[in-house]
Design a protein that fits this description.
Length: 371
């Protein structure tokens, strides 16, 4: 498979991924472009990456290799990470939450990711973590967190609409965190953690498989469950408000579990089915078959667990050791009454259900889209 793609370049990526509308804008190709210092390609303000200067492209094919939508290296990764359909390898599945009330208060679910990152920082196992934080009322941007305060600032999906609903003119729930990887690479940074969606972790794993810099500094990958991300403009916002009879000015926070959940300042909540959000879903998401982040060290999400709890799927030996140490050091806790065998069976069944749905959706989407 690799031999057949040696001659592939960014031109092929445009034809096979961008033009059919399959680009997830994960940032992998730009972050690890071998001509990055020459500025051959860059992220667009809206849409797939683009050439800055085509003549500076080295035609090395790295961009093609690391793209999640080319599926190059899938066989190698599936073997390495012991993939079994439909949800990948699982050493352990659990419902958990942060022990810190400060973290739990800010978190969307149980705050487990924030707590685990805090454990890594406190014990100097990482120099920092690539996460995303709020930038304006409804926008979030990737940034490099190096303190507990940074992590808490990044936790949850809370909004500040005290003045007006701004930032929703081009709202996107997907954050291109991989772009930050190259920005944080320096001789002083030896170990970092990355929190990302399936396509982002997929790209990082491919880069690690090919020993492409700076993937070597990523020591821990914490993956997010991902069924659908949304991208909408002002007219879409107005459509949603009219259809579901609410105002974004009244929204306090948002979460995605079995559906989209909007939490309002008056303590009410609104559940919106994914089927009602199809028209504002990011096109690339419909072509992605990975719901549970199969290549992460640990995958996290709210699906399957009770409110204010996080579902964790431990996948690798690195993830197993990290999770166990975070529990032993008192950073996260597993409620015993919610982690009995029948509870875990129910969690796995729910994850498998959504994983199968996403695989089937991707297969349907890709029919006729591939050149």
């Amino acid at each position: 498979m690799v031999d057949n793609t040696i001659s592939k370049t960014f031109e092929d990526l445009i034809k096979e991924v961008h033009e059919p509308g399959l680009c997830g804008e994960c940032g992998g190709c730009v972050s690890f472009c071998s001509a990055g210092d020459l500025k051959a390609i860059e992220m667009s303000e809206s849409g797939p990456p683009k050439y800055i200067n085509k003549d500076k492209c080295l035609k090395c094919g790295i961009c093609y290799f690391v793209c999640p939508q080319t599926h190059v290296l899938n066989d190698q990764l599936n073997t390495k990470f012991k993939y079994e359909a439909p949800i990948g390898n699982q050493i352990k599945v659990a419902s958990c939450h942060a022990t810190s009330e400060e973290i739990r208060k800010q978190a969307t679910d149980g705050g487990a990711i924030t707590a685990i990152l805090n454990y890594l920082l406190d014990n100097r196992l990482i120099d920092g973590a690539i996460v995303c934080k709020r930038n304006g009322p409804f926008n979030r941007v990737p940034f490099f967190a190096t303190t507990k305060e940074d992590l808490i600032e990044a936790a949850g999906s809370h909004y500040d609409t005290s003045s007006q609903v701004t930032g929703l003119e081009n709202y996107n729930t997907f954050i291109a965190t991989n772009i930050t990887l190259k920005k944080v690479m320096s001789p002083d940074l030896l170990n970092i953690a990355v929190v990302g969606t399936p396509c982002q972790i997929n790209s990082i794993r491919k880069m690690q498989e090919l020993s492409i810099l700076p993937a070597h500094i990523v020591k821990y990958t914490l993956g997010l469950f991902c069924y659908l991300n949304f991208s909408f403009k002002d007219e879409d916002r107005k459509m949603l408000e009219k259809r579901f009879k609410f105002s974004f000015e009244d929204v306090d926070s948002m979460n995605i579990r079995e559906d989209l959940i909007l939490y309002f300042k008056n303590n009410e909540e609104l559940h919106v089915s994914f089927s009602d959000l199809h028209e504002i879903g990011r096109p690339a998401c419909f072509a992605c078959p990975d719901f549970s982040n199969i290549y992460a060290d640990i995958s996290f999400g709210g699906l399957g667990s009770e409110e204010k709890l996080t579902t964790a799927v431990i996948r690798t030996k690195i993830g197993e050791e990290l999770y166990r140490n975070a529990i032993n050091k008192g950073y996260i806790r597993e409620p015993k009454e919610l982690n009995k065998p029948n509870n875990k069976d129910e969690i796995l069944a729910k994850i498998k259900e959504f994983s199968k749905k996403k695989i089937e959706r991707a297969e349907t989407t890709l029919k006729g889209k591939r050149p």
